[in-house]
Structures
1.
Amino acid sequence: MTTLRLGYSRIGYEVKTYFRQGDSVFFTFLFPLVMLTIFSVAFSEQNFGPDDAPLSAAAFYLPGMIAAGILLSGLQNLGVDIAGEKGDGTLKRFAGTPLPVLSYFIGKIGQVLVTGILQAALLILVARVAFGVELPTEAGQWLTFAWVFLLGVITSAILGIAVSALPRSGKSATAVIIPIALVLQFISGVYLGFSQLPTWLQNVASVFPLKWMAQGMRSVFLPSGFESLEPGGEWNLAGVAIVTGIWLVVGLVMARMTFRWIRKDS
């Protein structure tokens, strides 16, 4: 109970610290909103749906931006943040305190969950109010949104903890981790229609969780006619759960093997 209480208390601290860092707020919290706005305005005259069912650019890009926001809040933000704390000695100081590692993780994952919810809510609100996007009306669609979002947040956060071991120093963290997140966004149907990508690139993207998170979000926000454009001609929500769940387990194993308060080479 002490571990859980300490972890819960750290969530508030982590959220406050997050919003005090201007670069983190822009490149993880506001970046998907900026990109949604740019695409919605730039392609405002283009129809992304069939002739008999017009679809605006804002409606087309909203699911991908929500999925990208989850990845940025988890993998990118935590990966850079934890690597920075290793580099500036914060984690080394934690090693000399009674703070359990689990409490530290609860604080970080809780921060990703809170900021992810706020980010998704902001994206949906702007899409609806500013660009007139029609939102789902069925409870089942919002239930799908909830479990895809929650599974995606936890998986991305755990992977962020795991990839924080890649940079050799805090200064190199952004150069190592941000390109990974950026490439995944381009090949996973966030900025480009997934069906427009070459088959071999679709196969590569299908190995990683972002493609499946974006696909799960498309099943919630896009009309049913877009299902035929997905690989196999279906939303394949079972695949979304399986692949994302596998990456959650992989992330847990990697984090367990690589995370240390103090680097071995320090």
2.
Amino acid sequence: MLRKTFAIIKKDFLAEASYKLSFLLNIFSVTAVVFVYFFIDRLFGQRITKHLQEFGVNYFSYVLLSMAFFSYIGSGIGSFSLRLRLEQMQGTLESILLTPTKPYVILLGLGLWNIIFSSLNAAVYIVLGYFVFKINFSGINIISTILILTLSIICFSGLGIISASFIIIFKKGNPVGWIINTLQGLLSGVYFPITVMPPFLQFAAKCFPITYAIRAMELAVYKGYNISQLKLEMTVLFISCIILLPLSKLSFEHALNIARRQGSLCQY
């Protein structure tokens, strides 16, 4: 199992490494986005508004951490569908799935590569924040942060696998992927605390596990909250993991069975 998993990781690494300009442009894009939010924060005087008092930081510090976190667990780890779509278009998906390799091994390889690649993106955010913009991370609670990150990785891996199931069957048109990358980003507190939204949107935001993950991460990093102080957020994330992991396994196996019966694994 380990040999096959690392073979998948190696394949993805070699593919990404062959596009050096794309990698550099990705770093430049992250840097440009960070500066955009830095100047927006300066425009409004770098104040701690009433919506940010809970976290004890200005807008730029808040959004930098939330975007680093979202790029890691949402756009990064949750991007199983993008990886499978790429395999479809390259004509390699059918070859991989027809080998005597269990689906969970393939998913494990894709998931580990997503973690590695997403870590690079998140590191760019954090390095810029700490060394260039002098954001203070000294109050971080390491144990809470690691637990939040672990639960979030498991939770969003489940969502990402469900999203990939739609790609296997429908090729294009992925409602779960749209929810992960667009709707959750808008409503869950990535770009601003959810308290700025009207009550009905705040209620909708609380239906997404990432809302709890972002709030917990902000409080653990900037306020040093421990696990007991974040028990609501931790509980929601834990329950989400218990629900999403088995559901993702069933949905992926069901999607594979449908595609095999239809003979559509090689179609894109």
